[in-house]
Write a structure and sequence with these properties.
This protein is α/β, with parallel strands linked by helices and about 325 residues long. It has helices spanning about 10-15, 35-45, 50-60, 65-70, 85-100, 100-110, 140-145, 170-180, 190-200, 200-210, 230-245, 280-285, 305-320; strands at about 1-5, 25-30, 115-120, 125-130, 135-140, 150-160, 180-185, 215, 220-225, 250-255, 270-275, 290, 295-300, 300-305. Helix 2 runs parallel beside helix 5.
Length: about 325
């Protein structure tokens, strides 16, 4: 199984898959430019490590203390180290030592007793670019989201290279996609976690050509500045449009209502409203729709129930093969 994404959604699914009897490959976006990742990227000229760190922790067999140390984030009073996670610093140091983020992640995966494989989608940091429906463009994931404008399309360019060559995924990424029995997209930010991987030419081509079942885990809530007022069919429509064909086979949709008075929109300020359903629109794009209660309410927020999602993915894997 190949899981493609980034942000907070990817590690949720990876943690659930870690103990399943499958070979897991996580393909992780390298277009993040916010928080600790963004600062390290700007100062050290390295692939942003945050999403990679979370994937490593999700798949490690290390005891809880070691996991907690790796995830520990210095608080704001620490000035120089403020906001940095120890794992981000370790990944950055190894990447500098090896001169290669891919090799650094493979060595760290061995040190951390990882179950499966974790591949940065490219061996160089990428910048996310967006064109909005009003014709304007912006560069940088944080800037794009903060603009709160309707996005028409996104693409990626190399961050550090003046010749603006075509970004390409590592051979290991393409090989994993070609060998997969199931390819999972999401859950996660549509324009800033999922599409930055798929718009890389050889990744999109490999996913389109794959004989694997492509499963999209649709978000439960819409995201401010990205998917305001989107239905589940709108999410799929955008992904398909970026790759030029209807390639998503199956969509997992949560149909358990989110209680109106439960969500703390100040604490979870990236979300706006539950994703509305358009099953006719999904089927018109050739999708098999699996609708169920995938909802987990916690901390006044709405999330996917990891165990229920993973159980459905495993059911699909066994049904198809």
């Amino acid at each position: 199984m190949v899981v493609i994404g980034g942000g907070t959604g990817l590690p949720v699914i990876l943690r659930g898959l870690r103990d399943q009897d499958i070979e897991i490959t996580a393909v992780v976006t390298v277009a993040d430019d916010g928080g600790s990742s963004g600062i390290l990227r700007n100062y050290v000229n390295v692939v942003p490590p945050g999403d990679i760190r979370n994937a490593l922790v999700a798949l490690t067999n290390l005891p809880k203390l070691e996991r907690d140390i790796f995830q520990y984030r210095f608080d704001s009073s620490d000035q120089f180290l403020a906001g940095h996670a120890i794992g981000n610093l370790i990944i950055t140091a190894l990447a500098e030592m090896k001169g290669d983020i891919y090799q650094a992640v493979q060595e760290l995966a061995e040190m951390m007793d990882i179950r499966g494989h974790i591949y940065p989608v490219t061996n160089e940091p990428l910048t996310l670019n967006a064109e909005f429906t009003d014709g304007t463009t912006l560069s940088g994931e944080s800037e794009i989201t903060a603009a709160h404008k309707q996005i028409q399309r996104v693409w990626v360019t190399p961050t550090n290279n003046a010749d603006q060559h075509e970004p390409a995924a590592m051979h290991a990424v393409i090989e994993a996609i070609h060998d997969a029995d199931q390819i999972v997209l999401g859950p996660g930010s549509l324009f800033t976690s999922i599409l930055p991987n798929l718009v890389i030419k050889n990744v999109g081509q490999a996913v389109r050509e794959s004989k694997a079942e492509v499963v999209y885990i649709c978000n439960i809530m819409t995201q401010k500045g990205e998917t305001d007022h989107f239905t589940d069919a709108d999410h799929v429509r955008v992904i398909n449009a970026h790759l030029g064909e209807h390639f998503i086979d199956t969509v997992l949709v949560n149909i358990q209502p989110v209680p109106e008075d439960y969500i703390n929109f100040q604490a979870w300020n990236e979300i706006s409203e539950p994703v509305q359903h358009d099953f006719t629109g999904l089927r018109a794009q050739g999708c098999r729709v699996i609708s169920a209660n995938f909802l987990r309410l916690r901390d006044n927020g709405a999330f996917h129930d990891r165990d229920k999602v993973v159980a459905e993915l495993m059911n699909r894997l066994h049904d198809v093969h």
